[in-house]
Sequence to fold (256 residues):
Amino acid sequence: MVKNRGMKAISLNVWWGRVNPAILEFVERLGREVDAFCFQEMMRDTGDHEFDPVFDPNEIRDTVAVFSELLPDFEHRFSNFYGNDYGVATFVRRSIGIRSHFERPIYLDDPRIRLPKGDEGAHCRKVLVTTLGNGVHLANLHGMWIRNFWKGDHADRIKQSEKIVSAVNALEGPKILMGDFNLDPHTQSYAIIKDAGFECMVERYGITDTRTPLYEKTYSRFADYALVTPDVRVRDFRVLPDVVSDHAALFLEIEA
Fold:
């Protein structure tokens, strides 16, 4: 079993921080009790705006910098998808620490490939895997979005799932995979990941919706998941009620 004092983690697609200032209060408040955050749709203002998803004046240009100020007791790792300024970020409490990390391309890892305008960040994806000081491997995932396919199966998603499994299962020890998978739970793409030695907390706890009222579609109410290997003992798992994005935040607590 996991040999540590216990750990609380949150996964949240921050929707570019457009639910502002509520998301800032949420991050600061939860940062007082949570040990790790897996954030998706994060922005880092490097001046390289090759991919610029700003659609709303409330969006935060540099969520990485802003969240770093709100979480002074955390260190972080950022993985860019397209250009240098859009991707995922994992924040870990310094008392736990980060032993190592790596990022693995899971689709379109050739920078010479040019995608149609508006689809760039949707397809250029990586999984960010952070090995924590307590020995847990924490994988932060934002799965690809495919125009007109919503969250259903697609040949590219099958390939993506196979690469995710290859990257994460190459590691020895307890593993947690959290994030916005952009997949429905009945798809083969999702099954490939789950059946590679993981248990899904969304299924175990009977969760029926991982979106908030800000997500206006009435179908496809799943997107976000937390999966663990059998050597991770789960104490609690919840979808938090806070409306700080069109995605709900997932809360996971594990114990020794």
Residues 216 and 246 are 9 Å apart (CA to CA). Residues 7-255 form a domain with the Deoxyribonuclease I; Chain A fold (CATH 3.60.10.10). The mean pLDDT is 88. The chain is about 20% helix and 30% strand.
